[in-house]
């Protein structure tokens, strides 16, 4: 099943503003999700399209998704039960929500939502066990994480 995905919204300028740095410091987050759609995200989205069977009837979490391209692709091109597209930056999650809204008609029966999620907090480790599949691209944290 092929559905058209509308290009994700993202900032047109490849630069940061002072309020981005202020928000970054206030929430102890980085600003990489605000810069662009990274090539690794495009590769992950391509992989997910070509392995769509693995997502059938699954609950999927995308970590550190930036603008959410891979999560949107999973929601639109697979038969996943639910896709949660997350990022630790509240500004980025606003873009994710806009992208979900723009593409909602392409998701079929798949439930799709955005959420603020810091993967280096205890909440993340408790929560990840409720997902069947977790995807991420260019994912790095200074902490050692094991599941």
How does this structure look, described?
The protein has 147 residues and is of the alpha/beta class. It has a single domain (33-135), classed as 3-Layer(aba) Sandwich (Rossmann fold). It has 5 helices and 4 strands; from the N terminus they run H-H-E-H-E-H-E-H-E. It has a 4-stranded parallel sheet, covered by helices on one side. Helix 2 packs parallel to helix 3. The model is unreliable at 143-147 (pLDDT under 50).
Q: Please write the CATH class name.
A: Alpha Beta
What is the level-2 CATH architecture name? Answer: 3-Layer(aba) Sandwich
What distance lies between the first and last C-alpha atoms, to the nearest angstrom?
A: 33 Å
Number of strands: 4
The Cα radius of gyration reads 15 Å
By CATH, the topology is Rossmann fold
Give helix and strand order, one letter per element, not per position.
HHEHEHEHE
Beta content comes to: 5-15%
Structural class, by secondary structure, is alpha/beta
Strand order of the largest sheet: 3-2-1-4
Helix fraction by DSSP (H/I, runs of at least 4): 25-40%
Number of helices: 5
Give the domain tally.
1
Write down the overall geometry.
Answer: globular
Largest sheet: 4 strands, parallel
